[in-house]
Amino acid sequence: PPLPSGVRVHITSNDSTSRGIGLELTKQLLAIPTNTVVATCRNPNSATDLHALKAIAQGTLHVVCLDVADEASIRASVPVVTSLLGDGAPIDYIYNNAAVVSVPRSQIVKN
Asked: Distance (Å, rounded) from C-alpha 72 to C-alpha 90?
């Protein structure tokens, strides 16, 4: 099916709006100039591909810091997104490609 046009989309991901499926979805949504996309990720400063898209998106892409595993980060993102989209403005679609691990970070083994 064709992608929607004239919509407000919030793409949530810890890393994937800056790469992979989230980045590709962001690109495709931005190809329709009437769409507004809020892309969130844990480390927006290191999301170089996402910022390259923002530079050519003519104000339709907003990059916001959000770590879905951190309640303070979630709460802090709400007024930012609200100010970007307008108070009371609806979000038509939310694409969530972020996982929350219930194992304490101290118990995760890194390779």
From this structure: 23
